[in-house]
Amino acid sequence: MRRTLLTGALTLVLIAPPGLAAATATAAVPVVETQDDAYYADALGLTGEPLRDALHEIISTGVTTLSYSQVWEALKVTDRDPANSANVVLLYTGQSRSASLNGGDVGDWNREHVWAQSHGDFGTSPGPGTDVHHLRPADVQVNSSRGNKDFDDGGSAVAIAPGNYTDADSWEPRDQDKGDIARMLFYMAVRYEGGDGFADLELNDAVNNGSRPYHGRLSTLLEWHELDPPSAFEERRNELIHDQYQGNRNPFIDHPEWAEDIWG
Question: Stretch 212-232: mean pLDDT, rounded?
């Protein structure tokens, strides 16, 4: 969430009745100052590869890396249900479920890697495997159904996750999650460029990427990004990850226009 401060002052002349001196008063004047301008200073005004390179440096500097067990506790905060603080909101279904039901059994929620672990062979290692910007709570069975499929439109309805569709090589989430997923994958492709011991994660316009360090389908993700802009829930989540856990942000939540500037 880009936060705006209102500062400044304006002198007002108050018209007095005949025979009385005019008075003056000072009132606040809104002067727009965006706090994330400092965070993104080295990226502002850039496009294409220079923008991507600048964002990579910004979101890879001074980052706190979580362990996989720490992710459990982080998700209980970042994905807390605004209407019920004891619950988390699940990706793909939007269901509100008790935060204490984290685990691997039917009825539990677990940690969904939106950028599938096999698409880069990073497993649950600290780094991409524990990056909360792409980890979300999901129903155990729904998570298993999605597996490591790429994202694209089409397929058959998923009975246990209404609004989702799947086929042999792709997964289409419900409309409310499409933009979130796109922006998580945009983040991962910029954050992990192969210089930290992990694979260079890249987006492509394919499905059935298997174990290659690619994720798709890029053209579909760009459409989803436009159709489903950042929500208040997503913006709050971005703030919490930055302020309480990792110290970095997802630029495509703060500046949605940058997706087109890089991949358009």
Answer: 98
